[in-house]
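Subject: mismatched residue count in predicted assembly?

I count 638 residues in my input, but I want to confirm that the predicted structure covers every chain. Input:
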Amino acid sequence: MQIICVSRGTYEGGKELAEALAKRLGIPCLAREEATDAATRAGIHVGKLEMAVVRRHPLSEYLAVEREKFQAFITATLCERAREEGLVYHGRTGHLVLPGVSPVFRIRVIADTEARIAQTMDRLGLSREKARLFNEQVDEDIRRWVRVLYNVDGESPDLYDVVVNLSHVSVENAASALVAMAQLPEFQVTPASRRALEDLHLAARCRLAIGGDRRTRGMQVRVRADRGRVSVTWLPRDRKAAPAVPSILEEIEGVREVVCTMATTNLLWIEEDVDPDSETLPQILEIAEKWNAAVEILRLEDGEGEAEAAPAGASGEPGIPDTEAEGGILDDGVEVERLPEDAGVRETMGRLVSAGRAGGYRAVRGGAREILQSLDRTSSYSLVVVGRVFSSKGVSTAKRLSRELAGSLADALRVPVIGSDELRSQYLFGPGHWLKLALHGALAALLLFLVFTYQAPILEFLARGGTRHRILAAAALFLFVPLFAHLYGSFARYLFRLMKIE
Amino acid sequence: MTPGFEVLLVDDEPIVGKRLRTALERAGYRVEVCETGASALARIEEHAHDIVVTDIRIDEVDGIEILKAVKARRPETPTILITGYATVEVAREALARGAFDFLAKPFRPKDLLRVVDRAAAQIEERGGKGGPAEGP
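Triage response: the counts match. Full output below for your records.
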């Protein structure tokens, strides 16, 4: 069994090379277009994902679910086709849906720019300038697609075993060389890689089953499988749908045990003007990564009255439309892919979705009372971050109101509530922490050094008789122990933070 | 939007044609539906519709062929492509060939109406019905 993934762009000859390889090896060949058509027929909105890339739109939560389903579909398709006779797949970055299957032979096909322009002019009948622009746009779209789906640079040579320039070598000669390479032991399937393939296949089938069930189709989940033991991690906002998951998965062939766990926690980020380019977003993302948490954005609007309604699925399940019966035409009342109106929130949500950390969005007008009323109190928050709020009230009033808001939230939610400017000092390792780490470490070491260097006089001091002396020794210990504990504790805290250990 | 713009709607699925026709007619457009690519090409030869809306996958004559035919005869006619099988390559090809816009299914009739209204507004800006129009 051989698995070969050919990564190709437009008019680079990748399709021809993949077909030549499959013919020589006597194994089936599968094109991305066939797989995506099958995914669309299966009800996955691949076209919507592709158009979000073309239009440079950030992914909504609805599209994040479609992305998961599409990845699972491609994984399941590749596993199914590959496990019988092997497979040559040609598409964008098929090998990325088979992580851990080490014998996958990963080939990247490229061609010279001028040759591609000539091909585009010939096939599409475009002028040279339009053909050049077309190629550049498609290349950028594909780069963006790979980034959106897999968060990697699809053109990085690290992702491939071989890069072939078909402007410099013919398809037939390249196929001959690659067939010889494919015989190397590194590209032969082992029992371990076969098992990895089976696990991926089962996980993908389970993901598709969750996405295909009316009760759970809007859930964002991570599914892992290990010899029939399937673990599903879901976001806190999906707790209403989650109980249905075990009964859905138990029906699937190969599933022996189902373990469902909620993703650990939510971080609540309250901000008036959500800016994707602010320092806060990467800091919050870093903490969310460390804690395996989802980030919920709450945009606090000034004044009273109705705020912008949360988009479909922002605080519940993403609105996944049912399109089967209507030929892809929905009712006008169906909310699809409604993104927040605020551009900053939209972009920020897109980045959170890309990082797999989106926990929803809501807008609230008012203050602490309105925020608390809007929150789902059954959600488990681990941290509340309060950014810039009440800015129209003047600096001192805004500060006071922010403090009061933090106090009210801390009392009501019983979790730490901090300002966004405190994130780095409280939870992350910043440049200033190097000095603190060194200083606390040096002082703790100095104390230890002094104690061990002057053991005899210290012991003599501690053991000396007399009430006055004993009180003095107790007082000295009383001061020394917390001082050392503080120094060593701080040193350890900064060290763990540096090592990203919580 | 000025009512009375003529829209040629090409889709091989009767339910799609019916629903989109209803939505467009309710908004004041006059709609003609073709269910095959060949019949659409024949109508394009015979008649100058103001706006063309076509599915990409119809039959042996696909939406790109219809777009090419429209652009060859009346380059100013805004042509909107719709498909359930959108890819970046197809979308970019359609836009490079002069499509006014590209809609991926599933969508709501009001999403299409918004694009058609935009096309109609552009026709009006360019000198009224039948005047020159450009894509976005």
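Residues 112 and 120 of chain B are 12 Å apart (CA to CA). Marking this ticket as 'not a bug'.
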